[in-house]
Amino acid sequence: MLLIAVVALAVALWPREPRELRTDTATATRGAPAAASDGQRAAAALAACPSPSPQQSAAAGPLAGITVGCLRDGRPLDLGAALAGRPALVNLWAYWCEPCARELPALREYAARPGAITVVTAHSDPAEAKALARLGDLDVHLPGVQDGDGRVRTAVGAPAVLPVSVLVRADGSIAKVVVRPFDSADDIAATVAGELGVGA
């Protein structure tokens, strides 16, 4: 009986990978997940990803040249070029992250306000189909990109936690990396106004 108690205690205290940036166990076992299907993309009904403006000069800043997949259609997207010339909020999240699930509707509400800056979600897990399903469940249809290998996180120097919001100036420089979940659209608006000087 004592041996069972010792083994149970050892299992309980054994260090585990933090959930904030874990790898999906099934994904790790089977290898990289397949890309989402056209049907899954259509069901999620996401807004189109931002596109580069012909009037803008070349992208600058840490996101220049960072290629991710647009969740709406699966096409590659140079995120820095797509955001060039406009302030933006890039929200790093994952389908399994509960604080992210509570924050995403606030981002949706903020993005619908007149004067809001561009909001793009960046799914930070390889399981693209699960991201689309989660966004559909939450009724969040913001533009989104798939960043399963963490290119955006690495480029902006964000810590290995979720959610993280990156406030990007129109010139491509990073105004702030916000390492906490927003609790409301008003919280987002106040942070954006304070860091980027843009009110909504």
Automatic annotation (TrEMBL):
Looking up InterPro entries in the UniProt record yields: Redoxin, Thioredoxin-like_sf, Thioredoxin_CS, Thioredoxin_domain, Thioredoxin_ResA/DsbE_sf
**According to its UniProt record, where is this protein mainly located?**
other
GO cellular component, alphabetical, reads: cell envelope
Has the keyword Transferase been applied to this entry?
no
Arranged from A to Z, the UniProt key words for this protein are: Cytochrome c-type biogenesis, Disulfide bond, Redox-active center, Signal-anchor, Transmembrane
Q: Which residues form the Thioredoxin domain?
A: 45-197
- Gene3D superfamilies per the UniProt record, alphabetical: Glutaredoxin
Q: State the Gene Ontology BP annotations.
A: cytochrome complex assembly
Protein name (database record): Thioredoxin domain-containing protein
Q: What is the lineage of its organism?
A: Bacteria, Bacillati, Actinomycetota, Actinomycetes, Mycobacteriales
